[in-house]
């Protein structure tokens, strides 16, 4: 059975979706789409393992106006949660809703 996602507190350092959602089973890491949306007024960035909040290494900006941001086409190609990273911009972290679509 696939994992559906959840809400996660995103720290100020790049963290994979697998780590944020404590997904350890390799069979639960591949999805057709990953949908992301931040809650509250803070922002976050999504990208690869080198994503930061520094101007030249930012990934895709996530704000509450991003409704939601989708990774993957849902066409059979899978997206692995080990390779999608998020970094928060708020000192206390950002809450991001992560929906995993099988």
Number of domains: 1
Helix- and strand-based class? mainly beta
- Neighbour order of strands in the largest sheet: 1-10-4-7
Mean pLDDT figure: 86
Roughly how many Å apart are the termini? Answer: 10 Å
Total of helices? 1
Radius of gyration: 13 Å
User: Could you state the order of secondary-structure elements as H and E?
Assistant: EEHEEEEEEEE
Question: Stretches where pLDDT falls below 50 for ≥5 residues?
Answer: none
Features:
Jelly Rolls; about 100 residues; four-stranded antiparallel beta sheet; about 5% helix; 1 helix; mainly beta; about 40% strand; single chain
Please tell me about this protein's structure:
- The chain has 102 residues and is mainly beta.
- The chain has a single domain, classed as Jelly Rolls, CATH 2.60.120.
- It is built from one helix and ten strands.
- It has a four-stranded antiparallel sheet with strand order 1-10-4-7, with no helix packed on it. The chain has a four-stranded antiparallel sheet with strand order 2-9-5-6. Strands 3-8 form a two-stranded antiparallel sheet.
- It is globular, with a radius of gyration of 13 Å.
């Amino acid at each position: 059975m696939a994992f559906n996602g959840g809400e996660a507190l995103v720290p100020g350092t790049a963290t994979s979706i697998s780590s944020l959602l404590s997904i350890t089973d390799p069979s639960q890491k591949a999805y057709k789409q990953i949908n992301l949306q931040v809650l509250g007024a803070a922002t976050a960035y999504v990208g690869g393992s080198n994503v930061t909040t520094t101007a030249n290494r930012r990934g895709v900006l996530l704000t509450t106006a991003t409704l939601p941001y989708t990774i993957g086409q849902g066409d059979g190609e899978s997206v692995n949660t080990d390779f999608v990273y998020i970094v928060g911009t708020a000192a206390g972290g950002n809450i991001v809703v992560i929906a995993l679509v099988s």
